[in-house]
Design a protein that fits this description.
Radius of gyration: 21 Å
Strand content: 15-25%
Shape: globular
Largest sheet: 7 strands, mixed
Length: about 425
């Protein structure tokens, strides 16, 4: 069994892992680097199957291009991932066109890829010619999966993006893998631990309550998949009007069709039903007539309805802008955090409204990752999804692990 990193080697974004068992080839993720639209290396045409781990575009954003380019093998993923992917991929065509990039695929390619896709259930094994493959809850976002490949001689786990601790939205990731020869793992936050989740939730509630008491608005820019739903669950119990704008609204509807993809579908349904949905410019104007909470895209402030709200509220000291997710370099959100300035093509201001960053990460912490390695005890660890995996690999070697930090194009033999 050989593992070749086609994307996310010593970087974050465009995840793509090729596994060659000697008898079959599997592609685990095939994503796009969203900020600059960079693509992974091309996989071979004779794929047995493609397994997107979840519906974030940096992991699934180029899956339709495979069928368009003549690659064999169907797409396998959880039902929630497949349904959310359909929405995200169609929107990505619009985003690419808006940025002046010729789209990598068309709607018909999405249809061809997903109409034949196979829906996988957690823990159920899928038998290929020489390999059994199963998916297991990764705790990252609804539908996210870690992928186990078993050839009978070798057993390998690809974590995808993974979260081992419980959140308001998600159950913790499955981690009881046995007799593992190799782990391919994300290493996004290998160097630090995240704040206590309950303490973060209390901080968020305190800021929102204080803002509302001062007759202000709380604006929460959120990723459509995962973060929108978690924030909705937390703030819905405060008795303050909640407005939901952007793609997160449509993603939530899809998630509610898959009760096993989240911890408590009933609570999410109640929170979603109570939220006031913004579906037109006129609704946005009405949302600013009384103080409330506005959950909207985009999570890094690059486009989306959030621009409208910041434009209207940036000079109000009694209002709050709460960033709840990682801000990639060169995004509007990252610039705001580093310089205090909100800069877009239409607006360049230093907001007077309060700006707060809270680390509601959907990735595992350093200690959780190390505990997973100790528990799983793999013969080899292959690190991806971080620009500093080589540093982590050296540290793991000093701990007694056999660790690798391949660059894109590098292969590691599992033996």
């Amino acid at each position: 069994m050989d593992v070749t990193v086609l994307g996310a080697g010593r970087e974050v974004g465009r995840s793509a892992i090729l596994v060659n068992t000697g008898a079959e080839k599997f592609l685990l993720d095939y994503g796009i680097e969203v900020q600059n639209m960079n693509t992974p290396l091309a996989p071979p045409l004779d794929l047995a199957a493609t397994f997107p781990s979840h519906a974030h575009l940096d992991h699934c954003g180029l899956v339709p291009m495979l069928r368009r380019n003549g690659h064999a093998g169907d797409v396998f993923a959880t039902p929630a991932t497949l349904d959310i992917m359909d929405l995200m991929l169609r929107d990505s065509i619009k985003v690419q066109e808006k940025r002046g990039v010729e789209p990598y695929f068309a709607s018909k390619d999405i249809d061809r890829s997903l109409s034949q896709a196979v829906r996988c259930r957690f823990g159920k094994s899928i038998q290929f010619k020489n390999t059994a493959v199963s998916v297991h809850n990764a705790g990252h976002v609804p539908g996210s999966a870690s992928i186990l490949l078993d050839t009978g001689r070798k057993r390998m786990v690809y974590t995808g993006d993974i979260k081992f601790s419980e959140t308001e939205l998600m159950e913790p990731a499955y981690s009881n893998f046995k007799d593992i020869d190799a782990v391919i793992t994300e290493s996004t936050y290998w160097y630090r631990n995240h704040p206590d989740r309950k303490a973060l939730e209390k901080w968020l509630v305190d800021v929102v309550k204080s803002t509302h008491d001062n007759n202000g608005f709380s604006v929460l820019p959120c990723f459509a998949v995962g973060r929108t739903q978690e924030m909705l669950l937390i703030v819905s119990r405060l008795g303050i009007p909640v407005y939901l704008d952007g793609m997160g609204r449509d993603v939530t509807r899809i998630i509610l069709q898959h009760p096993d993809s989240v911890r408590n579908t009933k609570r999410l349904k109640q929170a979603f039903s109570a939220a006031r949905k913004i579906t037109s410019p006129n609704h946005r104007k009405k949302a600013l007539q009384e103080p409330g909470i506005i959950i909207t895209t985009a999570g890094m402030l690059n486009g989306g309805p959030v621009h409208y709200y910041i434009k209207k509220l940036h000079d109000r000291e009694n209002s709050s802008l709460i960033l709840t997710g990682y801000q990639v370099e060169n995004t509007v959100g990252r610039m705001l955090m580093e310089t205090g300035k909100y800069v877009t093509e239409e607006l360049s201001v230093k907001p007077r409204m309060g700006v707060t960053f809270m680390d509601f990460s959907a990735h595992c912490s350093r200690d959780e990752l190390l505990e997973f390695f100790r528990k799983t005890s793999p013969e080899k660890i292959i690190l991806v999804h971080s620009p500093t995996t080589h540093e982590f690999a050296e540290e793991l070697k000093n701990m007694g692990f056999q660790a690798y930090a391949p660059a894109n194009g590098d292969a590691v033999s599992i033996g």
